[in-house]
Amino acid sequence: MERQAHAVLPELAALRPTVGATPVIPVPSRAGKGTVWLKMEATNATGSMKARTAYALLCGVVARAGTRAVRLTEYSGGSLALALAEFCGELHLDLHLVVPHGASQRLRRQLHTQGAKVSTGLPGTGFLGAMEAAVRVAAEENRELLLQHCARDVVAMHREHTGAELVDQLRQAGVRPEAFAAAVGSGGSVIGIAQALWPCEPDCRILALFPAEAPYGDPAPPGEAPRMSGTGGLGHGLRQPLLEPHESRIELCTVAYPEALVAMRHLRATHGVAVCGSGAGAWLAASTVVDAAAPVAAAVALIAARGTAEEWAHADAR
């Protein structure tokens, strides 16, 4: 897929070196009984793991279209929108982004600055409202909807790149992880990395993290209550299509927003590491396994970014 996309749009190949090769760093678990290795994705272009997702989505759509003259739309709560806007700006691709109605003005200004058209979902409809609005934009403006929640290209990219990197890094460090924890947005990262881990670490528990305020398969309507960014159930009982086929092989867990904010502050103050709310939640989930296991056990937590200005304002206010 990458080779096809690069042949159609050679400028995509220039983006490839800016994505991946992110470090892992060890920190103590919450109770200090073992180690949680943090896969630090903020060193990607655009400052988050979503640079990988954006790159995979763009390679997929360009390869399938066979032309650079694609008109795109996608929904996002933040990090993916920023990555797509930056990449599409560099590639001169026509992009219309849809964000939830409650998205910050700071985010909207950043997206406009990168040259993207920006609209929002309806008030009170949360992330699902942005998804629905993006479907309408695709139909009304004759655009390709990237549809991250069904993008198997993203799963493949995380398996072949992110997951392969992690397996190699753990092998070099001599680490056999008890668990791998990652917050779930679309599910592409947790499933792709799990597929890379399963052949060599079949006993590694896969922890799929959701906000306590918006768990997986939540039957309630979507809302806009504060929670960890970049993750959450969709509401109305809907389940992430990339995650659902693997439910028997993963463990669902939740962390409340106040817990994640406390963990953000702890990791920064104690270990000098800035992480986003979902990353702090993944560290907490991984710590639960490590602290209950044998002495000097280890686990891995996926840290998608360093945290938004809004998250840190909430964390510092506690």
Your description of this structure?
Helix content is 43%, strand content 16%. The chain has 318 residues and is of the alpha/beta class. It has two domains: 213 residues, Rossmann fold (3-Layer(aba) Sandwich), CATH 3.40.50.1100; 100 residues, Rossmann fold (3-Layer(aba) Sandwich). The strands form two sheets. Strands 1-2-10-7-8-9 form a six-stranded mixed beta sheet, with helices on both faces. The chain has a four-stranded parallel beta sheet with strand order 5-4-3-6, with helices on both faces. Helix 8 links the parallel strand 7 and strand 8. The longest helix has 22 residues. The chain is globular, with a radius of gyration of 19 Å. The relative contact order is 0.16. The mean pLDDT is 96.
Shape: globular
Number of strands: 10
Helices and strands, in N-to-C order?
Answer: HHEEHEHEHEHEHEHEEHHEH
Q: Helical amount among residues, as a percent range? A: 40-55%
Distance, first to last CA: 46 Å
Number of helices: 11
Q: How much is the radius of gyration in Å?
A: 19 Å
Low-pLDDT parts are none
**How many discrete structural domains?**
2
Task: Quote the average pLDDT.
Answer: 96
Biggest sheet details: 6 strands, mixed
CATH top level label of the largest domain: Alpha Beta
What is the CATH fold-level name of the largest domain? Rossmann fold
Oligomeric state of this protein: single chain
CATH architecture of the largest domain: 3-Layer(aba) Sandwich
Structural class: alpha/beta
Strand order of the largest sheet: 1-2-10-7-8-9
